[in-house]
Amino acid sequence: MKGAFCPGCGSTKGPFYRGLCKDCFLHKKKVILLPEEIKIDHCKFCNKIRLSGKWLGQSELVLKRFLKKKAKISGLVDAKLSVSLEPMKDHTFAIVKASGQIDSNKITIEAKTILKPIETQCDPCMRVRSDYSEATIQMRFSESTGLAEREKALALLMGQIEGMQGRDPLSKVVHALENKKGFDVLVGSNKAAQSVVRKFEAKFGVKAIKSFKLAGTDHNGQRQRKFTYCIRF
Ligand SMILES: [Zn+2]
Ligand SMILES: [Zn+2]
């Protein structure tokens, strides 16, 4: 474009984007939309971070992927993004670069942000720290057992455990974890776990496999045992 100049500042230095020089164009239009600061929950116990609602192990890869998703690009043709991270003392400094074309002219634009950790604890860490459990009941199902049936058995087991809470305050389900083969139900009291396992053995005509392992020492220096009951349906 011979004789072209930027109506914004009078510069004759191209290339021009929508008739403006790069500076004036970028001043007028935000091509990369990215908050100046992004707060990220960080678990102080296991070091995981929460990105888009999920707790993940920290790595450059997950942070870069997150930032590429977070940056909203507009008006750039064939946009390619790259992210660089620089860890600082109490935050991480990040630059998102977008390269592409505007009016067939190549352009590279960058946006900066700060990733600010918010110290907290993730859900599993909170559970482990606040909930004491003496036993795990592993409910294992055959592959042909549908989800509805599995959940029915789980609800029955949980109901029976909670039902004994009047006599034994530790008779509670601390956590029920689902896996491919069934559920791992963490129970506060081993006595309650034992009692409900016996009822299940009678009701379903199965035999539970019992095992235990040492789970460290308590504040009195007493060795603690953690029991596991595996019921195969
Ligand atoms: Zn200009
Ligand atoms: Zn954690």
What would you note in describing this structure?
The chain has helices at 22-28, 60-70, 123-130, 147-163, 190-204, and strands at 32-33, 37-43, 49-51, 54-56, 72-73, 77-87, 92-102, 105-120, 135-140, 173-179, 182-187, 209-217, 223-232. The model has no long low-confidence stretch (mean pLDDT 89). It has 3 domains: 1-30, no CATH class; 31-122, Immunoglobulin-like (Sandwich), CATH 2.60.40; 131-232. It starts with 21 loop residues before the first helix and ends with a strand. The chain is of the alpha+beta class and 233 residues long. Bound molecules: zinc ion (2 copies). One zinc ion (ZN) binds at residues 43, 45-46, 48, 121-122, 124-125. Residues 43, 45-46, 48, 121-122, 124-125 line the site of one zinc ion (ZN).
Summed up:
By secondary structure, the chain is of the alpha+beta class.
